[in-house]
Amino acid sequence: MKRLSLLFFLMFFGLNAYSQQVETKVNASEILIGDYIELTYILKDDQSRYSPKIDDSTLKPFRFIALKKVDTLYSAQTKEYKYNYIISCYEDSVQTIPSQPFVSLNSDTIFGAAMTIKVNLVAIDSTEKDIKPIKPTIALPLSREELFSYLLMSLLVLAIVILGFWAYMKFIAKQKFSTKIEKEEKIHVVALTQLKELENSDLLNKDVKAYYQRLTDIMRQYIEKRFGFNATEMLSHDIVTTLGALELSNDILTTCQSTFELADLAKFAREKHDSTKNREILSLTYEFIQKTQGISDINQQANVKVVKKFYSVNRYLLLSAYQNQQLIKVMILGMLSSFACIALLLIIGYTFELYIVLNFVANYPIWYFVGMAVLGSIITLGFFAYIRAKMASYEVVFDFSQLIFRKSPIFYSEIKEIQASKKGLDIYLKDQKKITIHPYTEHYDEVQERLFDIQQQNQMTN
C-alpha cells in the first residue's frame, strides 16, 4: 500500500513539472565560435502571467545579443507567447545554455529547458606552414559625401575670411574701395566758415600772434585751392606777385596785399593793433574771399596753367583708394585659387586613382586642408607683397627739364608724341620706347595737361 501511494505521488509531481516547464527551441545545435543563435521560448495561455528574466548573467557562457519582437500566436483553443532571443558564444567545445527563469507577479518561477550547443573553432589551413605577419590597416579613400562636405566647409570658411577682410577694410580701416573722388565742399564756403569760427573764438585776446597766424593760414589755403599754386609754402610778397601774373583786378590785389602786410606786422613786428584795426584786417580777409569766389572753373584752370610755370618739382602717385582696391582683389583671388587647388587635387586623385593623395586625405583630412590653406596663404601673401611694392614704386615727377617715371629720368626733349588711350596716357619716345601713365594717377587731368603742354613746347621748339 505504501509503494502504491509513493508511485502515485511521483506520477502526479512529474506531470506538474512537465506542464509548468517552458517549451524551449534553438535553430542550430552546432555553430562556429562567435556565430549568432536564435533561442526561442514558447509560453502557453496558462503561463501568460510569467515574464522572462534573461540577461548575460543567466546565459553564461553565452552572451545576450538582442531580443526580437515578441509574437503572439492564436489557435482555435489556445494562445501562445513566443520570445525570440539572439545569443552567441565565444568559447569553443560543447557548451550548455542554462535553464532560464520566468517569474510571475507573485514571485512564482518556472524554467525553460537547458540546451546543449557544440561550438567549433574556425578551421585553420594546415597547408600554410609559414606564419605571416599581420597585414597593415587598409586606408579607405574619402567617400563622395565626405569629399563634398569638406569642400563645402572650405568654401564657407573662405567666404567668412573674405567677408571679414572686406568688413575690416570697409568699416575699421576706413578705406574706400571706389576710385571716384568725392565732391568736396566749395572752397570759399570752407574758408568763410573757418574765418567765422576764428572771429567767434577768444584767440585774439589770448595770443595775438597765433590769431594772425591762423588768419593768414586760412588765406593761404584758400588761395592755393582757388588759384592752384603752392601758396602755403610762399612768402606773402611772392603770393601777391603770383596773383598779379594772373591778371586779377587791382582792387583784389590791393585787398590781398593790405591783408598780408597788416597781419605780418602783428606777427613779426609785434605791432599792436587796436580793435578797429583788427576788425578792418578781418573785414579785408572776408572781402578778398568774397571778391574771388565768383571766379569760374574755366578761369581757374587757365590760371593753374599759368601758375604751373612757378613749380619746380611735382610728384604724383597712384590713388590710395585704387591701391587698396587692387590689394583686396589680390587677396580674394589668392584665397579662391587656394580653394580651387584643394578641389582640383582631390578631383585628380579620384579620377586617376592617386592612392598616395587619397590615403593621405583619408588618414589626415584636417592636416591636408590646413596644409593647403597655409600654402595658399603664403602664396597669396607673396603676391600681395609683390603687387604692393610694385604700386608703391609708381610715381610721376615733373622736374625742371625732365620727367621722372618709376625713378627713371626722361628728358622733355626725348618725348616724341603723347596719345590718350583706355589704358592711360601713352608717351612715345624718340628711341622707339613707350611708357604709359596710369589713369588712376593722382590728379590725372593735371598730369595729362602738363604732358600735352610739354608736347606743344617740343613742337614749337622743333
Percent of residues in β-strands:
15-25%
Overall geometric form: elongated
Total helix count? 14
In total, the number of domains comes to 4
Largest sheet: 5 strands, antiparallel
Which structural class fits the helix and strand makeup?
A: alpha+beta
Give the N-terminus to C-terminus distance in angstroms: 160 Å
Keywords:
4 domains, 5-stranded antiparallel sheet, disordered N terminus, single chain, 14 helices, Immunoglobulin-like, 462 residues, alpha+beta
Account of the 3D structure:
The protein is of the alpha+beta class and 462 residues long. It folds into four domains: 12-120, Immunoglobulin-like; 139-172 and 319-390, no CATH class; 187-311; 396-461, no CATH class. The chain is built from 14 helices and 18 strands. It has helices at residues 2-20, 56-59, 144-172, 187-200, 203-206, 208-227, 236-245, 250-268, 275-292, 297-307, 320-351, 355-363, 365-392, 444-461, and strands at 23-26, 30-32, 36-43, 51-52, 62-67, 71-74, 79-89, 93-97, 101-103, 109-111, 115-120, 314-316, 396-398, 402-405, 408-411, 415-421, 424-429, 434-437. Strands 1, 3, 5, 6 and 7 form a five-stranded antiparallel beta sheet that branches. A four-stranded antiparallel beta sheet has the order 12-13-14-15, with no helix packed on it. Strand 17 and strand 18 (434-437) form a beta hairpin. Helix 7 packs antiparallel against helix 8 (250-268). The protein starts with a helix and ends with a helix.
